[in-house]
Write a structure and sequence with these properties.
alpha+beta, Jelly Rolls, 7 domains, 9-stranded antiparallel β-sheet, 6-stranded antiparallel β-sheet, metal-binding, glycosidase, GH38_C, Glyco_hydro_38_C, hydrolase
């Protein structure tokens, strides 16, 4: 029959509103704006206006309380009573508009928003006849259209009603039968059978008086017939879907951290209320950060969640402290995300996560499989990879092989987005099209017929609705549709592993998971990226220094709390919309405050540790025979080396009168020096070339008046003849350099390699500005066509030679570009081939991308990029779509372009976006998007990048060590006379390809943790040895990254031996004899 489907669709729509019987206005509700507490709101409510439908309220980031004493008719007792509340617009899944936290009799009950308009009253309150209702409503911070104009909301619905069970059941059953029917082929027997069943049932409805008792009696009859007919339809084999409720809450994005805390209370209270109505409901929530907020802000909800975790309805998983970006954080940061997150879940809920849940991050480091496996994680889930611009990833269930060979079972959720976009979503719905689309999109149907569906409103929270849970019940046994069962992610992955582990058709992906999208997130909001790198290095140094202090003095009060607090702030700001630079302006105001707090904590901890080596405050315990005795030696200064190999480099010494002193090593050797011009604050500093500073240790130098040398100069034997620093000619022992009138390098001749470094005719260190107007997501994206319009920064206003040597030469260049200024200090060294570009920028451009370009005379089809705990090769050509899709790629501290026997590396101290095509290496410096922060990247920037030519490849040439040295300079600390050794190295290894990355105190003991990794791709046997002056090793064990387990190792000569596979990470825990 024609139009049968359309007729049924209309009748079902009409049923939707008729589910609510005896509707009556919610009367005498008062609005109390701009009051913080419920008590204040209740006290003021009587003097405030009564709210009526049509009233408006709001403004940008405003709060209002809606207060009412609700009474229920006696006839409603023992019935399901609901409130129907629509106070404004929510903004879809973003929830960046109106949201309300409901309190019933003073206790948080659930949320109301545009997606959750039903308010469920407890049966006890209905039977008692009244309840105190209060809604703390937030107006939102960013309107759905992305504008920043203030906006208000209209009160659309304020009603009470009785939910009619039969009509409600009929509505949902028919709705999802119809959705299924519309997807079936005309030849499907189930299509005709279900259509006929609905037709028969709906003919029984009495539409003569909708809403009457007669009508509701007819819905009971129709429901009975419909279910009887539905049960009679045969079921064939069907795909299985494990549906888990989910509430993706961006810890900050179009809202601030404080709003996220409120979103957690709203979203989780709704989940708990719906669990009371749906006993089968299983809900997953990741991100311990949110639980920590909830524990403090909503303690009663938190305790209820703990009960639900024990009962199995609430799954606390995901592993990381929060859903972190995986491009920008260092390897150790990723470890701490897991360490902090997993320990929280174990401590608070007694669960040990096995799933990394990262649905929405913007790329996945090749180091992740190993990091995860060595953290007790066996499974990985995401959906964001489906957003790739050029190539669809070929697999949805596969083994992901990491850089070291570790394999990780990986599964992508393939739920189609609600609005029909081309990508998949983690904010799924449960509809006929969503569950069928989930199966249709899935590529590994030959090995797996059970898929995972994460459903619920998300990004700004909200979570599942009753609509979704009712739908899940209907699809538990819907003919011809995938069969939906509620379940958890951990159990899903365990079952998936059992199904596919021995299947030869299970595909393997050996390489990084590069997201072909959101490439601008490597560069946006440069201040945060700079502070992230600074904090990673500062905490690295603080942990090492305090671990050494603890080793030397077992009674030392190790500042674990200060370190943990600082780390927590750093981890929070690594969230996948904060550190990528894709949040609103207020988020970055908050993060500046947070980074200042984290920095203060870390500096205090570092200074506390260093004080143990300056004032000798530890007392006599553990004293060693070799003591710092300053008599006759001069003013002692300790030079700390927080890296894992012996280093020789210049160190800046800042003590009163430093420029008047001659500096000597502990052995009495005079050290080359250079006076640094007085600073603006009047302080004086001197550069000293310090030699052979022990790995993870220190040496002592002495400054004294008199002696054979001249204060503030190199010794006569050290003076180089091939040293010249002028405005256009620079000569060092390593290079002959020529600059053009714009201050760009036009020749860089490597004297030792006897070759030109730069491509003939192409200047280097060219500052290029590109028009950066991406098609979709301004702060997130750089589109490939950005290269079509480029300007060069060439307006050199001033060139000044600041330092002429003998240890360091510095030329200051100041450029003007439109509304901006750029100052660079071109820096060369007498004893090191690194060339630094110390840069300060005052940037006032919008949608302009600043890059530094280095055309080098190197022929190679691949370049090497440092990633966490290793490196990856990427093509320099655009042969295929997979190649040119990587037109902008991420790296940590260095990239390299090498040919046989020679190469050039570009190092950085806080930049991540790079592009290397053919022979040109470029580093992205500033992006300056206009949405969602219209002031992004405006103002002052400070950063350093360095050119590092080398003989051999990057490994033979020492690129990795050079980049680490740029990021982790030597520390000079004036000391007093005392009892500690003049030189000491905590730990060292005997193989150059083994990087000691972290030295810290163990989490649960005073043992020392030493984290290392192999970075050259070389299978290695290595000896790890501690300085007996620091402590005598009594035991050693290799643990996982969580400091769990532990294979005892043989100890000899105050050390032990380990075997590394290429790119393997190892964690060594050593105990000391006390």
């Amino acid at each position: 029959m024609r139009f049968m489907i359309e007729k049924l669709e209309r009748r079902i729509q009409e049923l939707a509103g008729l589910r609510y019987r005896d509707r009556k206005p919610l009367e005498n509700m008062h609005i109390v704006p701009d009051v913080e507490s419920l008590a204040e709101a209740k006290a003021a409510a009587g003097s405030q206006p009564v709210v009526k439908v049509g009233d408006r309220w709001g403004g940008r980031d405003r709060y209002a309380w809606f207060i009412a004493d609700v009474t229920f008719p006696a006839s409603w007792r023992a019935q399901d009573v609901v409130g129907l509340i629509k106070l404004g617009e929510t903004g879809g899944g973003n929830c960046s508009g109106y949201e309300g936290q409901v309190y019933l009799n003073g206790e948080p009950a659930q949320a109301v928003d545009r997606n959750h308009a039903e308010l469920f009253f407890p049966a006890q309150a209905v039977d008692e006849g009244r309840v105190e209702l209060a809604i703390r409503a937030w107006s939102g911070l960013t309107p759905p259209n992305g504008s920043h104009m203030p906006f208000d909301h209209r009160v659309d619905v304020l009603e009470l009603a009785v939910l009619d069970a039969a009509t409600d059941d009929l509505y949902y059953t028919a709705l999802h039968m119809l959705q299924t029917v519309k997807l079936l082929d005309e030849r499907a027997l189930e299509k005709q059978a279900m259509t006929s069943a609905m037709e028969e049932a709906f003919r029984l409805l009495d539409w003569s008086a909708p809403g009457s008792d007669r009508f509701y009696s007819s819905t009971e009859q129709a429901l009975y017939v419909l279910k009887e007919r539905l049960e009679a339809i045969p079921r064939g084999p069907r795909p299985q879907i494990t549906a888990v409720g989910h509430c993706h809450i961006d810890v900050a994005w179009l809202w601030r951290l404080k709003h996220t805390r409120e979103k957690s209370g709203r979203s989780f209270s709704t989940v708990l209320t719906l669990m009371d109505r749906f006993p089968e409901y299983v809900f997953l929530q990741s991100q311990p950060q949110l639980y920590a907020y909830l524990k403090k802000d909503f303690p009663t909800l938190y305790e209820k969640i703990k009960d639900r975790v024990k009962e199995g309805n609430w799954e606390a998983t995901g592993a990381m402290w929060l859903e972190s970006d995986c491009n920008i954080p260092s390897g150790e940061s990723l470890v701490r995300q897991l360490l902090t997150g997993k320990r929280f879940f174990k401590r608070e809920f007694g669960v040990d996560n096995r799933v990394l849940w990262l649905p929405d991050v913007f790329g996945y480091s090749w180091a992740l499989p190993q990091i995860l496996k060595k953290s007790g994680i066996d499974y990985f889930m995401t959906t964001k990879i489906s957003w790739s611009q050029y190539n669809r990833f070929p697999y949805d269930t596969f083994m992901w092989r990491g850089i070291d060979g570790t394999e990780m079972l990986t599964h992508y959720i393939t739920t189609p987005d609600n609005d029909g976009s081309w990508f998949y979503t983690y904010n799924g719905n449960i509809t006929g099209s969503s569950i069928q689309g989930l199966w249709d999109n899935y590529r590994q149907k030959d090995i797996n017929e059970n898929l995972l569906l994460a459903y619920g409103w998300g990004d700004g929270g909200g979570g599942p609705t009753r609509d979704m849970l009712e739908a899940a019940r209907r699809y538990e046994d819907m003919p011809a549709a995938p069969q939906v069962k509620q379940g958890g992610a951990e159990a899903f992955f365990e079952q998936l592993e059992e199904r596919v582990k021995d299947n030869p058709q299970l595909h393997l992906w050996d390489g990084e998971l590069y997201l072909e999208y959101h490439r601008g997130t490597y560069t946006s909001q440069a201040y945060n990226k700079r502070m992230n790198r600074r904090m990673e290095q500062l905490l690295h140094n603080a942990e090492f220094v305090n671990a050494l202090a603890l080793m030397l003095n077992p009674g030392y009060a190790y500042p674990a709390a200060g370190l943990a607090d600082s780390w927590e702030i750093v981890l929070r700001n690594q969230f996948h919309d904060i550190i990528p630079g894709s949040s609103i302006h207020e988020v970055y105001e908050d993060s500046r405050v947070e980074y200042a707090e984290a920095e203060q904590l870390a500096v205090q901890v570092l200074e506390q540790g260093l004080s143990q080596f300056t004032a000798e405050g530890r007392g006599e315990a553990g004293a060693q025979p070799d003591s710092v005795k300053a008599e006759g030696k001069g003013l002692p200064v300790r030079i700390f080396n927080p890296l894992g190999w012996e280093r020789s480099f210049v160190s800046e010494v800042s003590v009163e009168g430093a420029e008047q002193l001659v500096w000597y090593s502990a052995a009495g050797e005079e050290l080359p020096t250079q006076i640094i011009p007085a600073q603006e604050d009047g302080s004086s500093r001197v550069l000293v070339t310090v030699k052979d500073v022990p790995a993870y240790g220190y040496t002592t130098i002495y400054g004294r008046s008199g002696g054979s040398g001249t204060p503030g100069s190199a010794s006569a034997a050290a003076v180089e003849t091939d040293w010249q620093i002028t405005g256009d000619v620079v000569e060092t022992p390593f290079y002959s350099i020529r600059l053009n009138e714009a201050g760009q390098l036009v020749s860089l001749y490597d004297k030792q390699a006897d070759r030109e470094v730069l491509k003939p005719g192409e200047p280097a260190n060219v500052l290029q500005v590109f028009e950066d107007k991406p098609m979709a997501h301004d702060a997130w994206d750089i589109d490939i066509f950005y290269q079509e319009k480029m300007r060069t920064v060439e307006d050199l206003k001033k060139l000044t030679v600041l330092e002429e040597g003998p240890l360091r030469g510095v030329i200051k260049m100041v450029y003007a570009y439109h509304n901006s200024t750029i100052e660079q200090r071109f820096t060369v060294y007498r004893d090191d081939p690194r060339i630094d570009f110390v840069t300060k920028v005052d940037w006032h451009e919008h949608q302009q991308l600043l890059k530094a370009a280095f055309p080098v005379d190197i022929r190679s089809t691949k370049a090497t990029y440092e990633i966490q705990f290793g490196n990856v090769e990427r093509p320099t050509h655009w042969n295929t779509s997979w190649d040119y899709a990587r037109f902008e790629s991420v790296a940590q501290r260095w990239v390299d372009l090498s040919e046989g026997g020679y190469g050039v590396s570009l190092l950085n101290d806080c930049k991540y976006g790079h592009d290397i095509r053919n022979h040109v290496i470029r580093l992205s410096l500033i992006k300056s998007a206009v949405y969602p922060d219209g002031t992004a990247d405006q103002g002052e920037h400070e950063f350093t990048y360095s050119l590092y030519p080398h003989r051999g490849g990057w490994y033979e040439g020492g690129t990795h060590q050079a980049a680490c040295g740029l990021n982790t300079p030597l520390l000079a600390v004036p000391v007093q006379e005392g009892i500690l050794p003049e030189a000491l190295g905590l730990v060292k290894v005997n193989q150059p390809n083994i990087m000691i990355d972290t030295v810290k105190k163990a989490e649960d003991s005073d043992d020392i943790v030493i984290r290392m990794y192999e970075y050259g791709g070389i299978r290695t046997r290595v000896r790890v040895e501690l300085d007996p002056q620091a402590g005598v090793v009594s035991a050693a064990a290799e643990t996982n990254l969580m400091e769990e387990g532990g294979e005892p190792l043989s100890v000899s000569g105050n050390g032990t031996e380990l075997r590394f596979k290429p790119y393997e990470i190892k964690t060594l825990v050593v105990s000391l004899a006390r």
